[in-house]
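Lab notebook: predicted structure, single chain.

Context: the supervisor wants predicted structures on file for every construct in the current expression panel, including those that have not yet been purified. This is the next one on the list. No modifications to the sequence; it matches the entry in the shared construct table.
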Amino acid sequence: MSLICSISNEVPEHPCVSPVSNHIYERRLIEKYIAENGTDPITSIAFSENGYYLATAADDSSVKLWDLRKLKNFKTLQLDNNFEVKSLIFDQSGTYLALGGTDVQIYICKQWTEILHFTEHSGLTTGVAFGQHAKFIASTGMDRSLKFYSL
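Prediction complete. Output recorded below exactly as produced.
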């Protein structure tokens, strides 16, 4: 029986198992490593579908990308000053990473470059989600609206 890790305020006593790769990850070790290698509070977190990668957003307007197989920060996306990230999500194929916060930004994971940028919310974006096959993305915001964007 495998235990799937979920993000909460509770630290599980048992290791987490990726449902795709069946790799075992000890959440406490991941949290400890990230805490020791970051300087600002983490505001959002997302696992890639295959369980190999983790994206963390921090108050310093950056998104760090981690290879969980090596416990290594392999890329840092430095966003514009004062960019607030409130939500991160990988699509199901692992092709895209979406950021929601000051705006909505979509990155292609192979190059980690921004490919789309949406500014339709009049307040902070609080959530982002990919639709089926990443054909569209939805976002919610402090302006009490739900927006849909075609990819």
